[in-house]
Amino acid sequence: LRRVLVLGATDTIEQRNVKEIFIADYDGFNQRRVTVNRQLNVFPSWSPDGRAIAYTSYRRGYPDIFISLIYQGTMETPTNGTGQNWLPAFSPDGTRIAFTSNRDGNWEIYTSRIDGSDLRRLTANQATDSAPCWSPNGAQLAFTSDRTGTNQIYVMSADGGPAIDPAFNIDGEG
Asked: From the CA atom positions of the chain, what is the Rg in Å?
């Protein structure tokens, strides 16, 4: 049976800044609450094996990334509370996450193992780089950046290096 992630409010309109993450069957039955911290929890992302959920939570008073290992009943905090951290995305093999962080003063793309080890900063520029997404084989990351003054999609190696803008014009050139 397939499961879905559901983001839901648990309180009244006055408490609309509280969002919890739930797992449910596709038909909405068998709901199971993943977060119970009565804070804003957003941007959930399944691990490829379906055994973990990475998400952004405000439980520390600022956005940070947590990974709930749902069948073990444990949690990882890969960013260790350093900086503001957003938009986690699991690598296709489930061993790493890519995320957006301002830990070095600017919004950049980072990767780490899910336990927080082997932290790597992949971008380094004055623009805002965010929303990383792994390629199916895990060799590249796509992300958005406003380096041209407007948000564009860029692609780079999952190990870092130069980012390219894969855009093309309407004539199919470029």
From this structure: 17
pLDDT value of residue 22? 80
Percent of the chain residues topping a pLDDT of 70: 86
- Residue 46 corresponds to which tokens in the numbers above? 């399944």
CA 105, CA 149: separation in Å to the nearest integer?
19
Closest by alpha carbon to 155, among 128, 135, 171? 135
> How does the average pLDDT of the chain come out, rounded?
86
**Structural tokens at position 4:** 């879905």
Q: Are 81 and 66 in contact (CB under 8 A)?
A: no
Q: Which two tokens stand for residue 172?
A: 């199919």
Rounded CA gap, 165 and 48, in Å? 27
Contacts by 29-32 with C-beta closer than 8 Å and gap 24+?
A: 31/6
Q: Please determine, for residue 9, whether its predicted confidence score (pLDDT) is greater than 60.
A: no
